[in-house]
Design goal:
141 residues, alpha+beta, 3-stranded antiparallel beta sheet, 52% helix, rod-shaped
């Protein structure tokens, strides 16, 4: 019995299986990290596109109002995002021609790779775009 136990401990049979499982674990971790990065980049890209579209309208209308938020919500829904998770900070109307307009769109992102291991960690995704108003408002003089 003792001889068999020593032979079992010295044997290298089955090492390939352990290497395979270790390699699969590393591949799975890398895949989760890649999926997380792709999700982050896609959400940021969608936010940037929607904010840029809304900023163009703000330039013509010389600021933001409730219709601006409605436009942003429509764009986000068309991109498959939930508008309730997105916050908007924009320069309110009216702004004179040549004055600075700003829009900031923020969304919290739950890191996917960490959810797989039971950790709930959120990262804010913020897009900030500046611009200049286009329309000149005459004063009442």
């Amino acid at each position: 019995m003792r001889r068999r136990w020593k032979q079992f401990l010295r044997s290298e049979r089955g090492d390939g299986i352990m290497s395979f499982f270790f390699l699969m674990m590393i591949v799975l971790i890398i895949a989760l990290i890649v999926v997380t990065i792709v999700q982050y980049v896609m959400i940021r890209s969608n936010l940037r596109t929607a904010a840029n579209e809304v900023l163009q309208v703000m330039k013509v209308e010389n600021g933001a109002d409730q219709a601006t938020r409605t436009r942003l919500d429509g764009l986000l829904q068309s991109m498959g995002m939930n508008p309730a998770k997105v916050s908007l900070i924009a320069t309110p109307k009216p702004v004179q021609r040549g004055d600075r307009l700003e829009i900031t769109v923020t969304r919290e992102y739950n890191v996917f790779a960490l959810k797989a291991v039971g950790v709930n960690y959120t990262v804010p995704i913020t897009v900030h775009l500046p611009g200049l108003a286009h329309v000149f408002y005459r004063t009442g003089e």
